[in-house]
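Researcher: Checking consistency across runs. Here is Nuclear nucleic acid-binding protein C1D again:
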Amino acid sequence: MAENDLNAEEYPTEIHEYLLGFEKSVDGVDKMLTKMMSVSRSELLQKLDPLEQAKLDLVSAYTLNSLFWVYLVTQGVNPKEHPVKDELERIRNYMNRVKEITDRKKAARLDKGAAKRFIKHALCDPTSEEGSPAKKECKSKSKKK
């Protein structure tokens, strides 16, 4: 739909900017879908690890259901009373689960051996002149030996 196709006489002028924004959004979706459809699904999935495959599947399902939601609105159907609402919620729950898994992978791991060495050297450094009372106590103990 080109700007020339939008005839201001066919609709109220106050929504003209909204319609132009909507047209740009639809064009963006069209470009993304064309790009995504240009590569075969099996070829795309071969390049991704299982977690990335799950993310791609969830985003695809969420996008299609969201577009169906918009379609229902354009047809005058209340999508909040349609099964698509439950499907979107189900997909959102799976997206949250994938996010939790991703966050767990990114979480810092504790190296217990290194932590013990840090604590030992932080609390008991007999050569240090300054430090906490624990260091001073440790230093006095080591001088008595």
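Researcher: Does this match what you'd expect to see?
Model: One thing to look at in this run: The helical segments are 16-37, 41-46, 50-74, 83-106, 112-123, 133-144.
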